[in-house]
Amino acid sequence: MTENKSIETLCAITGLAFHSIGDYSYASDCFCQVHRPENWHYENQGRMINFVFDAVVEKLTRDGYTPNSKVMAKIKYLLFNI
Questions:
Q1: 44 with 14: CB under 8 angstroms?
Q2: What is the pLDDT along the chain (82 residues), one digit of tens a residue?
Q3: CA-CA distance, 46 to 49, in Å (whole number)?
């Protein structure tokens, strides 16, 4: 998979959560380059990224894995220091 295809796929996964929940009262712009207007202003409040993060942690735990604490700390820092 190419880098662009990987980014586009991750963006689509985040979009799946966003559009399935259907709460459009907060910004959740995609981070890939697909379908961006020329004067586009990126805005993402982190809610869907946090949702996907929680889902990954839940799946890892359910499957018997321990989420890496260093990576978890970095992600939490990034999510809560917007």
A1: no
A2: 898 888 888 888 888 988 898 888 877 777 666 666 677 677 888 888 889 999 999 999 999 999 999 999 999 898 888 6
A3: 5
